[in-house]
C-alpha cells in the first residue's frame, strides 16, 4: 500500500513539474514575443498621417463636444419616455 501511494505521489510530482515547465515556457515565449514586437515597432515607426488643410476649417464650424443640441436633447428625452412606458407595461403584465 505504501509503495502504491509513493508511486502516485511520484506521478503527481512529475505531472506538476511538467505542467509548471509548460507554463514557464509559454510565459517566456510570450514575453520574448512582446519584446520582439517592441523592438520592431521602435525600429520601424509608422509615419504620421498628414492633416489636410481643409479639415481644420470644417471642424471649426461644428459644435464643440461640450455643446448639446436641442435635437439631441429631444431624442434622448423621447427615448427615455418610451423606455419608461415599456418598463411600466412589462411590470403591469407580470
From TrEMBL:
Localization terms from the record: Cell membrane
TM spans (from-to): 12-34
Gene Ontology molecular function terms on file: decarboxylation-driven active transmembrane transporter activity; oxaloacetate decarboxylase activity; sodium ion transmembrane transporter activity
GO biological process, one term: sodium ion export across plasma membrane
A matching Pfam family: OAD_gamma
Principal location listed in the UniProt entry: membrane
Family designation: Belongs to the OadG family.
Subunit-structure text: Heterotrimer of an alpha, a beta and a gamma subunit.
Function of the protein: Catalyzes the decarboxylation of oxaloacetate coupled to Na(+) translocation.
Entry protein name: Probable oxaloacetate decarboxylase gamma chain
Amino acid at each position: 500500500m505504501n509503495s502504491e501511494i509513493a508511486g502516485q505521489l511520484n506521478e503527481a510530482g512529475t505531472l506538476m513539474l511538467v505542467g509548471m515547465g509548460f507554463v514557464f515556457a509559454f510565459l517566456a515565449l510570450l514575453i520574448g514575443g512582446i519584446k520582439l514586437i517592441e523592438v520592431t515597432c521602435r525600429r520601424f515607426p509608422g509615419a504620421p498621417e498628414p492633416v489636410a488643410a481643409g479639415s481644420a476649417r470644417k471642424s471649426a464650424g461644428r459644435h464643440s463636444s461640450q455643446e448639446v443640441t436641442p435635437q439631441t436633447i429631444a431624442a434622448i428625452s423621447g427615448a427615455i419616455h418610451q423606455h419608461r412606458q415599456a418598463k411600466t407595461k412589462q411590470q403591469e403584465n407580470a
